[in-house]
Amino acid sequence: MASQPTTPKLKELRLPMSRVKTIMKSSPHVDSIAQDGLFLVTKATEMFIHYLAEDAHTEANKCQSLDYKHLAEVVQTNETLEFLKEIMPRKITVRQFKEIMAEKEASLRSSSSESSSDSDSDSQSDSESTSGSESVKVDADNSDSDTNAENGKTPSSDQSDSSDDEK
To answer: Start and end of every Transcription factor CBF/NF-Y/archaeal histone domain (predicted)?
Structure first.
């Protein structure tokens, strides 16, 4: 009986194990990696890539090529791939992005006009709490007063400082 050498096991892989090992070692929680564990992670990665590519190819209706938009569509529609939604978002055009940002800005303006009686410090803390989850564009007029308030200056004292510089 011929014994099976371990080298055919390595030929089953298409991804280089050295690259996978480098990626795994980039984690601060990983000190050493056993060869069997490395093989399993590499094989699982290949199987995941194969699954993602097959689903995207099916989604693309058997097109001749597989594009990013096909992969992103699979990620956005498949619940099991939810962890990749931020990494692989759907592609949008610049025009669509500008429309989305304009809608967000309009909704922020309408919500801020309802609470216009709030003090500057309250609106500043509100904007800080929303900026953690999404980026918010601030008007140029408001940003000057916010930065002055952070520096302890009022708009009138800021003007007097600039008039002193001119003299």
So the answer is: 14-64
